[in-house]
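Margin note from the TA: students keep mixing up input and output lines. Inputs are the sequences; the output is the structure of the whole complex. Example:
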Amino acid sequence: GAVVSQHPSWVICKSGTSVKIECRSLDFQATTMFWYRQFPKQSLMLMATSNEGSKATYEQGVEKDKFLINHASLTLSTLTVTSAHPEDSSFYICSARDGGTSGYNEQFFGPGTRLTVL
Amino acid sequence: DQQVKQNSPSLSVQEGRISILNCDYTNSMFDYFLWYKKYPAEGPTFLISISSIKDKNEDGRFTVFLNKSAKHLSLHIVPSQPGDSAVYFCAALASGTYKYIFGTGTRLKVLA
């Protein structure tokens, strides 16, 4: 099956620093990638949708200057949390949609990145 | 406004018995539904899906039932196994979009 990787799997940083999380589709081309955030014991909340070569579409309430998303290639999207603060601590998950077929393509999820901001 | 709800935050079932996880939605534009399984600190894993043109889809031990009039779907796991213990999320898509709306999850514990 399709594999999506994320790096790093966990990161601890100081308040005020920026953190970059990578999401890669390993064996397929992902025309669309999605970034989710999950708080403990809560649902996965979609933060933004990114299409290769174009600007990301952010969900309501998500600060685009805070969470920078770049989808420079069909296999890589990055999420940069800028000037991180403790309230940004969360579990960030990416998913990728295989652009090779039509219809309601299944999204393949990465293993997630645990961000802790001290 | 939670468009997809899983009203049972947790469920315990004896090994070998049936597990039934429920999901309700409010948006009548949703026409494709998926169930994902998630372990702590891992990404969700796809289990099974169903289109609104069907009312049942089966894959091995997993069966999803859709009741469009009630805006309700359920996931049946038979027989339940200890390895099924995880958090289960239902997700819905509206026609013409690729945006998943996830439910709040149900933590299933299968007791040996």
